[in-house]
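Sat 14:20. Reprocessing the chain from the morning session after the first attempt stalled halfway. Input below, unchanged.
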Amino acid sequence: MYNVLIIGYGNIAKRHINNLIALNAIKFLTVLRHSDTAIDDYPITSEQISALPTSDSLKGRFDFCIICSPTNSHIEYALQLLAAKIPCLIEKPLAMNAAEGKKLVSDARLQGTSVQVGYNLAFTKGFAQVLAVLQHKELGRIWRIDAAVGQYLPNWRPHKNYQTAVSANAALGGGVLLELSHELDYLLALFTPEKIAVQATLLNHSILTMDCENQAVISGSFNLADGLQAAIIVKLDMLQQQPSRYLHVYGELGVLRWDLILQQLVLCKHDGTEQVIDIKEDTNQQYISQLQHFLMIKNQANLDSLNTAYKTMRWIDAIRQSAAKGQTVHLELIS
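Finished this time. Tokens:
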């Protein structure tokens, strides 16, 4: 059991706390939040603080930290924790931009301290099965990749005013590129492109009242490790009132279709065969699996997730640059 620090106290923080309790992983819980409202009554010993202790008093006090605060504060907290060699699970996205992410990657390597970023889709059965299909080359040579997610922002948290939420405020880390960056991260994890050609359009439709983009259309190509190129299109929006989330991968031997909402994965071969792959699971399992993985690697100086999340931030920066300049941006991602 562990002495655990949770920074922030929104829905995802509460989910992590409840899952850690279910895993019997908490000896003592500390929650940092900027509110006088008391935290929920948990069946464990806990305390609430309003500021991070000094670096000297941090050392040895916590076994790990989960950072669930708004994106604009991720790096500030993470750098202080890394200085005290405290492993961190940082909720996505990693940072506001790639420059912030680069500093964190550098410090994590220097300190030899594990950092994991909370891209939980990588811990779904669907992701694992898609990766297996790709690794076994069941599609042959890949030539096209389509990914999309669309969810109406006011429906994300129906009992709260979306206009005051992080998702709708640029200064806090809002907008589809950061808030819906799961798709970008899992595409990098699945296909590990060495280079990306990026063309992008970012729009802020007046359908919603927000000061950041609520739609992104990203196209271009991946240079894959086998020397091939695959066309790619990624569509992100906060506007669809009927939620949609999918990945379609096209290869010379067939098509793989992953519906992340219906939890359906279908491999259609050009020889007429169709394979339905079982990926059904409780939606909370991906968060539990993510925590179990973090608990396993937290003392191993593991930066795999951090490195991919940093590449995701570099892709986001390239998307912003392409949209601003109206031209193709070329990004090299070879480690």
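The two ends are 36 Å apart (CA to CA).
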